Amino acid sequence: MSRSNQHFVASLIHTIATHTSDVNSVAFSPDGTLATASGDKTVRLWNTADFSELTASPLVGHSYYVHCCTFSPFGTILATCSTDGKLILWDVKSGSKVATFQHSSKQSIRVCRFSPDSNYIVSGSDDETLALWDITTKTLVRSYKTCHDASVVACAFTPDSTFIVSGSSIGDLRVWDAKYGHGKALIYNLDCHDLGVTSCDFSPHIRVKDHGISGCVTYELATSGQDNLVKIWEMTADLSCASVVLKQKLTLKGHEGTVNFCCFSSNGNFIASASIDKTVRVWDSSTGQQLCEVEGHTRYVTSCAFSNDSRLLASGSNDKLVMIWKLTTQEDCIDNYKEPQCALKTKDANGVHKPMDSWSAEEVGDWLGQIDLGQYRDNFVSNAIDGTELCNMNDKMLIDLGVAAMGHRNRILRCIKTAQNKPTVSRSVSNLSDNGIPDEYLCPITREVMKDPVMAEDGYTYERSAIQGWIDKGKDTSPMTSIPLKTKQLIPNRSLKMLIQNYLDSGKG
User: Fold this and answer.
1) CA dihedral 352, 357, 361, 366 (to 10 degrees)
2) Single pTM value for the model
């Protein structure tokens, strides 16, 4: 997915409700396998093609909460860590244990990450230390014992596997040498996040100065914290002398509670963040612009992850659920938008859309075919049901015309109202979309709950950015009726906005 100025639309495509306790971590492998780790002591593996559980799943080996799961760069090994003090490496295909590591203190391990070169894995513990492990020899390479003065809850390798960054629950951030054995922090920032760091992740992008002659490289780091913020940092290093400078670049504001987790997309263009405010947000990593706010969980969102192609976003929560969202740009929604079947498609000799009350009986018959009810065409035509008669149609008249199925009668009446350009807004929740949300709360273009509903000249209400994008692309007809829009004026629908907000505040949305 390319970088775009358009906002994203997140559509829920699947919910996993198998775990019996908090979902603490989610991760995608390069081939699309999804791992989910839970307080129920299990880790589960899922095929995202059909969301079936893999035969090797569940992975059972921890005796307490599983805090973190992460795939190796090639996706063949999964690492998990737990309150039981164990870091376990699993063979993804067979589900068997490859290795088990423990810090010398045997205290809880909060986080683990593979090096991008696949040689090492680093783990952070409640014992305030980091440990670096060799995956091939299954041995401890180095323990950073003068690490932090609190639990190590975040760590990440630079994309070239040269450095490790770690963060603690009191808010400090430290940088370590991962190659040459330096046991002391190369740099530290005591004020990274007020109240505590919760996670960190590096962009895959590296900027090399002077074509590598000077040995200076710049990395991009994202951190999240209990101050409700995501921060983006530039970390510049002189590889010739292991000198490191850390400079804050952007602050991403929007969350209304602790940000539990943040991660880059595989192309480095986007950042996702998960928060106590029950949302996941997607950001443009270069500008800090919020591209999408994802709402669906009923409790704290603990973790999130992009698929390798950035088209899927997974989120885990204290509500015991894993939700998988499809990400599309609003521009794609507009380009792929299909006009409703009941939209008016009848034109006069000059190519102008004809109003329904001027249709002939034959045109009414054609219209029935357009809405997939062509089986009633002959009855309507033989009874001379032209556009005028159709406009005055009611349920009893439809029964007399042989439309016995209630669903078919309802469809005809709904489509008459649409083709007449007379949208209806039901205040009840009986008119529900597939995901249980009242249909009138969804933008017809994006099919997402509207945050800034506006009414267009066609009488329909849309998300402002969606209908504005429609107009900006040169489309001059109504998305719902295909009738030309005589004016591009958009009027805020404040009453509907209030209804939507009340619905969301009630916890139903």
Assistant:
1) 50
2) 0.74
